[in-house]
Each structure stands twice: as structure tokens, then as C-alpha cells.
Amino acid sequence: MPAGMSVEIENIRKLYHTRRGEDVEALSEVSTSIQAGEFVSVVGPSGCGKSTMMMLVSGLIKPSAGRIMVDHEMVTRPRSGVGIVFQRDVLLEWRSVLDNVLLPIEIKHLSRAAYVDKARDLLRLVGLEGFEAKYPSELSGGMRQRVAICRALVQEPGLLLMDEPFGALDALTREQMNVDLQRMWSLAGNTVVFITHSIEEAVFLSDRVLVMSPRPGRVVADLQVDLDRPRGSVARKDSKLVGLVDHIRHLFQVHGVLSEK
Amino acid sequence: METPAQGLGAEPRNRPSAGARLRLWLTDQGTPVLVVLLLLLAWEVAVRLFKVPQFILPGPWEIVRRMVVDWRLILANSTVTIEETLIGFAVSTLVGIPLAIGIVYSPLFEKVSYTVIVSLQTIPKVALAPILVLWFGYGLMPKVAVAFLISFFPIVISTVVGLRSVEQEMIYLARSLGASELQTFIKIRFPKALPNTFGGLKVGIGEAVVGSVVGEFIAAEKGLGYLQLVSNVHLDTVLTFAAVVAISLVGVVLFYAMSAVERLVIPWHQATQGR
Ligand SMILES: Nc1ncnc2c1ncn2[C@@H]1O[C@H](COP(=O)(O)OP(=O)(O)OP(=O)(O)O)[C@@H](O)[C@H]1O
Ligand SMILES: [Mg+2]
Fold first, then answer.
1. What's the Cα-to-Cα distance from A8 to each of A208, A235, B35, B57, rounded to whole Å?
2. What's the number of domains chain B is made of?
């Protein structure tokens, strides 16, 4: 079992230079630290810099100031051991489900044979047994997103970054995916940074929820979720969970994101 | 409880009657076939009724009859045209796809080559054909050259569009996995471009037929274009029409052959499924 990776975000700022020559400040002064094996959600209004934060942690883009450490090493470019699930599934249409899951293995020139069983296990875990040979175009949106998650997990990442992975799914599928994700995480023991629009989803899944302000994004609250695991559909009605959800909603009202009028 | 009468009544729903099947076939594929047959019939009737001289307009029956009688002649000339077309098309593909890759990967190369390609495209190829004959003589070469010139444009353009259609997220995915530029090209960009490329290839192969026939018009001793020209000079209009039909048959066959290759190479593409 891979140990989770820790993440340190230290005084991060991110400016985007637009084509018109102005600078857009996406993130201002974000600091937080995520322990190895922790499941942390990030919630915040649209455009507050959540995706930006994920891209920074992944090393795909560089911060304007501050630094990020993953597993005690400074992030300067994408590093191995980090899996990403993008908002859209980004499956390769010309590859079968199994070959999509094995893409990271192929790119890293690892032995395919050594990972085929692992890939099949992952697909079985998310209820996609028997779909290994199908093309993505033959799957539903929820099934595709599950394949994308398997692809991120096949290399046994110590850190899993997920950017609103269930944003495009219907409520029922989404609830099921939450349960599936929780199970996979408890088996893998990795660190997860999970970005979402849904306050309830964040609280249901996480050990900790980071609440962000509107752009330029800052962390305005860092809330611990003390609920027993595994959490089932009963936990969704738990008074602690409901209380936290209400609290976060209130925070958004304070910051002018949610209005009563 | 179900009565026997009801059981019998349900039967036709499972097995449509001969009449229903015929109607289904007629609406599905029969109608176009029927329309074409009716048009041919009208043509045949009109030619006989108004006693149109054969050297002006022969009837379809006469054309078909001639194609059967002279099948060796037509086949021999078709083989020539097909050969020119396929060579020209192969050169187009071998030049066009690398050219498209160069255009996508190098902005400087894009600026230079786009100007050349587009200005080349605006010249009518018929105008170029005599020059090509001057350079390459009467043999295979000038026809191949016209076929190439006329068919490589759609292949280049569609491949460029395809290579550019890769989403930013896919590139991010590749980079996050530590993929090299070459791996990103082989595993993502190129396969992603294939549906577009095949679109260009299917247009291109039809254009290549036109190109080789045009080449044959200018200077040739064989080929369907030559056959058409010579029969025309001899006022053998039936044979001229037979040659035209053969040209279009060659085009149709090559197009469907290309579609078959497409289904083989990119079975995952939705447009290749179903129809
Ligand atoms: N490449 C870019 N160039 C310029 N500005 C950008 C770029 N990417 C993001 N931005 C800006 O930075 C801000 C934060 O964007 P980001 O995508 O991180 O938001 P987000 O919180 O993920 O939003 P959403 O919830 O809608 O996905 C936005 O205001 C956006 O306009
Ligand atoms: Mg986002």
C-alpha cells in the first residue's frame, strides 16, 4: 500500500497575464498544509481559483509567489506519484476502457503485464467489470468518469487531485460515486485533494474542508469533519454533517456569494 | 384469460406480412433505387420516342450494352486510370500528412508553407496540366502529378484541423504523466487527428480520380480520360458515355474502399459505425 504524500502550500499567489496586458489575480496568499493520507475538499464560488490551486499543486503551472512542497520536495514540474482527475473525463476515444486505464503505465514504460490485474481490479471496484474492451463512446457519462478515476489510481498515486470530477453527473450517480470514491480511498490510503461546488459532497467525503473566498481566492475557513467512517447514506442526515453544511453556507452568505434576496 | 383468437391476432406483429416487408424495403432503400430506375427509364423512352440520334444522346440501355461488349477495352483503360489515381493519391498522403505535422509544430513553417499551399490551391489544375506535360512528357508522371496536386490540399487541411483539435486538458494529462513531446504526438495528437485525416483522404481520393482524368485529357495514349476523348473525336458517343460511367464507377469504388480502410483503422470512431 502506498503511503500518502503530504502537501505544504506556503504563501501562494497566482497572477494570470491576460492577452490584453492586464493581470488577473486568481489566488492571493493561500497557505495550508495537508497531511499524508488526509482527504481534503476545497469548496468555493466559481472563478475563485480552485482549479488554479490544483494546477499549481500538480506542477502543471507555476506560482507567481510562494512555494508548494509535495512529499517534502518543492514542486517545479509534474512529478510521478501524483494522479489527476480533471473536470471532464479526458478519455482517449481510440483506446478501450482497459487501455485508457493503462495509459499512465504505458507512458512511464512500465510493464503492462504487471498492471493489467490491478487495472481490472480497479474497474471491478467501480462496477465496470465486463466493460474492459468497450470504447469510451459506448459508455455513459458516469461510467466514463469512473474510468478516468481508475486511470488516475492505476499508478497508485500517493496524492490524488480531483477537480470537480462529478460536476457533470446526475444527483443519483453522484451519490453512488461518492460512496465508491470513499471506498477506494480507504483501500488505497493516499492523500486526496477534492475540489467541488457541492458543500454537502465536500463535508460527506472529507476529513477537512477548506472554504475559499471569491476571487482573488483565499482560504477563509478550515473545518474539521469528525464523522465516523465508512459513511453511508445515513451519514448524510447526521446532525453534525447538516450543521457543518449550514455553517459553510452561512460563510458564503457573509462573503456575499450566496444572497437571500 | 387469453383466447386463441387473441393469440392468433398477435402473430403478424412479430412476423410482418410480405406486403409490410415490401413497404419497409421501399421506404428504406427501395425508393432511391426506384427513382434512379424511373429516371433511366424516362431517358430510354425519351430517346426512342423522339428518335434522338445516337451520336447526340444514346439511351442507357445502349450504354450498358456497349460496356458489356467492350468490357476488355474499358477495364484495360480503367486499370490505367486507377493506377495513376492511386499513385498520385499515395504521394498526396505521404507528402500531405508530414506537411500538416510540420505546419502544426512550427509557426515559421506554417507561415511559409500555407502561402505556397493556398496559392497553389487557387490555380485551376487544368491550367497546370499542359505545363506538367511539357515537363514530364506523355507517360504516367504528368497524370500522377495532377492527381497529386488536386488531392493533397484536402488531406493537408483536414489533418491540420485534426491535429489542432486536441483539448488543452489532454495535453495537461500527458504532461502530468511525464509524457515526452514524441509520446504526446504518437499517443494523443495523431490518433486524435485520424477521423479528420480520413475525412480528407475520402475527399482526396475522389479528387485524385478527377486529377488523373484531367491529366489524360491533355496528353495520353491510354486511360479512361483518353478513351473518352478519342471516342468523342470519332463521334462514338456511346463509348464516350460508357467511359464517363466507368470514371464515376472508379470514383465510387475507390471512395468505398477508403471508407473500408477507415473502418479498419479507426473502428472506435462513431462515424464509422452503424452506417
Ligand atoms: N489561463 C488563464 N488566463 C487568464 N486568467 C485565467 C486563466 N485561468 C484562470 N483564469 C482566471 O483565474 C480565476 C480563477 O480561475 P479558476 O479556473 O482557478 O477558477 P475555479 O475556482 O476553478 O472556477 P470554477 O469553479 O468555475 O471551475 C478566474 O477568474 C479566471 O478568469
Ligand atoms: Mg475550475
1. 15, 30, 73, 85
2. 2
